[in-house]
Each structure stands twice: as C-alpha cells, then as structure tokens.
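Q: I'm building a small set of examples for a reading group on sequence design. Run inverse folding on the following structure and report the sequence directly after it, with nothing in between.
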C-alpha cells in the first residue's frame, strides 16, 4: 500500500507537500479525495476541463496507515511538477516509485498550478497572469524558474527538521540518498537545484524546459538522467511548436549535453510531453501507462547506481526497455 501525508510549509508563499510512502493498512482514498477538503471546488474545475473524475483513481493511496518500517530510512525523491500541473497528478509514476521503497515528496506551486488545496480549506486557482503567460516571455519564465528552485531548497530544509523531530515522520527519510525529479518547468528547476545543493545527489529530468536553463562557466558533475519525449530533435519539435522556442530548446539541450559531465540522455519512444504526468489518463488516453512504467524503471535503476556509487552500464537503455533510446545533443539516436 502507498500512504500519503500532507504538510504545509509556512512562508511566502505557503507551500504544500504530499509525502507518499510505503504503508501498512490505512483507509483507501479516491482520486478526488486527494484534494480534500475542497473536493467540490476541484471536481467542478476538473469537470469543466473535460476530466472524467473516475479517471483520477489511478493508484491505491491510503491515509491513516502505519509507515512501513525501515531501519535506515527510505531514499527520497523530491518531485517538481510541470507548469500548471497539480503536484499530485503524477500518481502513475509515484505509485511505482513508492512500490520500489522510495519516499516521494511532491512540491506545490501555488498560483501557478491549475489549483492548490491547503488542509485548512484554502483553495487557490491558477492566477490569471499565469494562464496568460506567453511562451516567449522569457523574463517571466525565469522568475518562475527561480521560484521553483527556492521551493525545492525550502523543502530540503523542512525534510531535515521533519526527519529529526516530527512525531510521525522522524527517521523516515534517508537524507544521504536524495534525488530530485522534475517535469517540464519542474525539470529545469530540478537541474538547477541539484547543481546548487550538495544535499541532492541526483536529478531525473522528464522532458525538461531546456530553453530556460541557466548557462554557467563551470561544467557540472551532478549525476543526471534525462528522459525526453519521442519528439526530441529540432525538426520534430519545430513541426508542433514555435520555431524560436524549438531552436532555443535544442540550444539548451546541446549546452546541457556538453556541460554535464555525468549525464545520461535518452528519449522514450511513444511519449509526448505530458505523458510523464497523469493528465493523458484523466482523458482516457492510456498511451501514458507504459511511459510511467519505463520512467519508474529507468529512474530507480539510475538512482540505485548513483546511491551505491556505481556507473550505469553502457547498454543500460537496452536493459530497461526497447522504447528507451540513447540520444545525442541534437536529440537524435546516438551511434552505438
């Protein structure tokens, strides 16, 4: 079973985190109940967006269950969502990571996500300026990137306190084994946070916003796993998005490829940009199911190698799945 615990981080802004952990027993939670005590507000908005609420029941999540004991604590994954995506709309991946004995901590992005629910009943919809943010407004996106990095740093600080003194969570986290996972904007923030914070040992980037990453003079040795959508090359992206954004994205991908000294670059055949989240499943689009499975498999193989100070084998991609393909800096299949 997978348990879920909510914590609120006071500050400006107030952040909410969900802590998903291996659990024993507990009361099952329906998908819409993840947004308690504001189920009605969340249901109304999601229904207006065309979501079938039954499709929110993606994974077996419980509340009130006992923490599955582990003497040395569980390795931790901090998850930063994509722009506009509610933090817990990654249950397809989260459930598989928790089943492999990881604790996953999802981080809210108030006023940016489609909505944010606080345990006290506060309910924040996405701010109008977020909904209207143009893809070409790079200064605006850079501010959001900065905020996301700060959120990850704040959660790391809080986890240390919880692990030391919280009556329910003390000792749950193995803080020597912390990775950050991010999707889209959250992927760019995860890379920057991992480069800055030595407490974070690895980064898993799910089709990150490479056009927003920061350029630095010094290369980075932080271990990085990149999983891109199938349209990973410029010509493929330019066919479905703004050509300038596509060009800047590939330029950022090249920079990351050349500046990260310990990185593994892959694409997932059959994956689209939102496939790493639950969003397709909410609309009965099940192509994301195998994407979630291979994402969890690749991420855990990578993190286990990092945490145990091993290198991934050269043929790691073929061992994971025939849909996971090594790519070069241009997003094309790498020569073998």
């Amino acid at each position: 079973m997978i348990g879920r615990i909510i914590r609120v981080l006071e500050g400006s802004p107030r952040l909410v985190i969900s802590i998903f952990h291996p659990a024993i027993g507990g009361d099952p939670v329906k998908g819409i109940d993840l947004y308690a005590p504001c189920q009605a507000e969340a249901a109304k908005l999601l229904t207006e967006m065309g979501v079938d609420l039954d499709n929110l029941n993606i994974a077996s999540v419980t509340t009130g269950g006992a923490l599955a004991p582990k003497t040395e604590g569980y390795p931790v994954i901090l998850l930063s969502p994509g722009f506009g995506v509610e933090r817990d709309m990654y249950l397809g991946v989260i459930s598989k990571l928790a089943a492999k004995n990881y604790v996953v901590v999802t981080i809210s992005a108030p006023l940016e996500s489609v909505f944010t629910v606080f345990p006290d009943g506060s309910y924040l919809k996405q701010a109008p300026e977020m909904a209207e943010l143009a893809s070409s407004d790079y200064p605006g996106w850079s501010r959001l990137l900065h905020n996301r990095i700060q959120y990850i740093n704040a959660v790391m600080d809080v986890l240390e306190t919880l692990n030391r003194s919280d009556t329910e969570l003390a000792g749950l986290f193995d803080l020597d084994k912390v990775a950050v996972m991010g999707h889209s904007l959250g992927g760019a923030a995860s890379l920057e946070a991992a480069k800055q914070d030595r407490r974070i040992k690895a980064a898993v980037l799910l089709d990150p916003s490479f056009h927003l990453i920061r350029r630095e003079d010094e290369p980075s040795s932080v271990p990085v796993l990149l999983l891109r959508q199938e349209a990973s090359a410029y010509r493929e992206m330019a066919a479905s998005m703004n050509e300038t954004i596509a060009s800047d994205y590939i330029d950022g991908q090249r920079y990351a490829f050349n500046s990260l000294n310990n990185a593994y670059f892959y694409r997932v055949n059959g994956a689209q940009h939102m496939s790493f989240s639950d969003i397709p499943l909410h609309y009965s689009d099940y192509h994301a199911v195998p994407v979630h499975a291979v994402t969890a498999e690749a991420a855990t193989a990578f993190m286990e190698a990092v945490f145990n100070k091993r290198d991934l084998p050269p043929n790691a991609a073929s061992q994971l799945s025939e849909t996971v393909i090594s790519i070069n800096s241009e997003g094309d299949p790498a020569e073998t």
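The first strand starts at residue 2 and ends at 9.
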